[in-house]
Design brief:
With 146 residues, the protein is mainly α. Helix content is 60%, strand content 0%. The protein contains 4 helices and no strands. The protein has helices at 8-49, 58-92, 98-101, 121-127. Helix 1 runs antiparallel to helix 2 (58-92). It is elongated and about 65 Å long. The relative contact order is 0.12.
Length: 146
């Protein structure tokens, strides 16, 4: 049996429900990322304030750094999901409630690791070959390693 496509008002309501849930997850990811940033600052500050050796808490600092990296990748996947759901809604003619959608900004192209393509200064550096393979800016005069 072929599923029927919901009527336009039902499509709009369903799309609004999905949009609200997605926005909540996006907000939660950003809030968690901000808290991880604060923790990354707090860990070395407290070590310094306590006059402790650099090795104290280093493994925890590494873990928080890895969690931050993973969350940034997750956030990229959310952006990718948002873009795909927006296209699907358009194909179905669904119009989620604009109050739920928030700003309708282009989400950007997503590369294979789930991050948006660089914009601004970094893309200019890439155009001039001044960014290495992992995306870090090379010091002036440094030669790219193939």
């Amino acid at each position: 049996m072929t599923p029927s496509i919901p009527s336009p008002p039902d499509r709009d309501r369903l799309a609004t429900t999905v949009a609200a849930d997605l926005r909540a997850v996006e907000r939660s990811a950003d809030e968690t990322l901000a808290r991880l940033g604060a923790l990354l600052q707090t860990l070395p500050e407290t070590r310094l304030a306590g006059g402790l050796a650099s090795s104290v808490g280093h493994d925890a600092l590494v873990s928080v750094g890895e969690a931050t990296r993973d969350l940034v990748r997750f956030r990229g996947r959310l952006i990718q999901t948002h873009s795909r759901l927006s296209r699907a809604a358009g194909l179905l003619g669904a119009r989620p409630d604009p109050a739920v959608l928030g700003p309708l900004l282009e989400k950007g192209d997503i590369d294979e690791i789930g991050t948006t393509r660089p914009q601004g200064v970094r893309s200019r550096l890439e155009d001039r070959g001044e960014v290495d393979q992992i995306g870090a800016a090379r010091p002036q005069g440094a030669v790219a390693v193939p």
